[in-house]
């Protein structure tokens, strides 16, 4: 566990955070997803890291905002673990790197590549690079739920990059040659911390745009139906997964 025992940003009390957590980058997505829970209550709003805790099918689940990028997300993942989380999932958006992916598809991230340096170098001495991979049992369980609902999904590698405004075509060429199918910003740090801190992790990513074909950038409102439908599947999967 971390050297720190008391969270400095998520000011929740012991028992406020469930063992099963869905994290999101956009606060608007958290406000939407909380309505899928029974009796959701706001247990933190400090620093804009909103955390709601309620129940799904009688099982306690929390929904938490992790912000944008690894630097913000690692704080939330660390503190959720301090507060008792045993499963931390990320339900976010991702940009397609392959033409087969369309807006509205789901990517279940088996693993995530990341750049050395930045937040990662703070955890590893020297030239160590830790494998950033999902929990296999959790991935299979969630995949079965999406398959059962007839959702179009892909299982594969992603790349987590803190660079947002870059040449999309050059970036896509670079990373598809290395096997990545989509890009986002937080999965790698989630998976790395799951190994260090001892919790199960999985990223379930909604394709919101493409770096290899023209799709535009749908608004949160335009993606709302996907968010609610897929969020419901993820919550059902978590509620039925044994911690």
From TrEMBL:
Location of the Nucleoside phosphorylase domain: 20-221
GO molecular function: catalytic activity
Gene Ontology CC: cytosol
GO biological-process terms attached to the record: nucleoside metabolic process
Pfam families in UniProt: PNP_UDP_1
Gene3D superfamilies attached to this UniProt entry: Nucleoside phosphorylase domain (3.40.50.1580)
Superkingdom per UniProt: Archaea
This protein's name: 5'-methylthioadenosine phosphorylase (MtaP)
Annotated source species: Thermogladius calderae (strain DSM 22663 / VKM B-2946 / 1633)
Phylogenetic lineage: Archaea, Thermoproteota, Thermoprotei, Desulfurococcales, Desulfurococcaceae
């Amino acid at each position: 566990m971390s050297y720190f025992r008391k969270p400095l940003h998520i000011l929740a009390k012991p028992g406020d955070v469930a063992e099963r957590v869905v994290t999101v980058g956009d606060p608007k997505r958290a406000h939407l997803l909380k309505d899928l829970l029974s009796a959701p209550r706001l247990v933190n709003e400090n620093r804009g890291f909103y955390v709601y805790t309620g129940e799904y099918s009688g099982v306690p689940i929390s929904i938490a905002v992790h912000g944008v990028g690894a630097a913000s997300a690692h704080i939330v993942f660390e503190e959720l673990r301090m507060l008792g989380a045993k499963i931390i999932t990320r339900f976010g958006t991702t940009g397609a790197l392959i033409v087969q992916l369309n807006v509205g598809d789901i990517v279940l991230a088996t693993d995530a590549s990341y750049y050395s340096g930045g937040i990662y170098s703070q955890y590893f001495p020297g030239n160590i690079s830790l494998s950033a991979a999902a929990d296999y049992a959790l991935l299979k369980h969630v995949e079965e739920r999406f398959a059962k609902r007839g959702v179009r999904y892909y299982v594969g590698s992603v790349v987590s990059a803190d660079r947002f405004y870059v040449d999309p075509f050059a970036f896509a060429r670079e990373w598809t040659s290395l096997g990545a199918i989509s890009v986002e910003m937080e999965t790698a740090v989630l998976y790395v911390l799951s190994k260090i801190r001892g919790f199960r992790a999985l990223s379930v990513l909604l394709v919101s745009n493409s770096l290899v074909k023209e799709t535009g950038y749908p608004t949160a409102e335009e993606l709302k139906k996907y968010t609610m439908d897929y969020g419901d599947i993820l919550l059902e999967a978590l509620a039925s997964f044994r911690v």
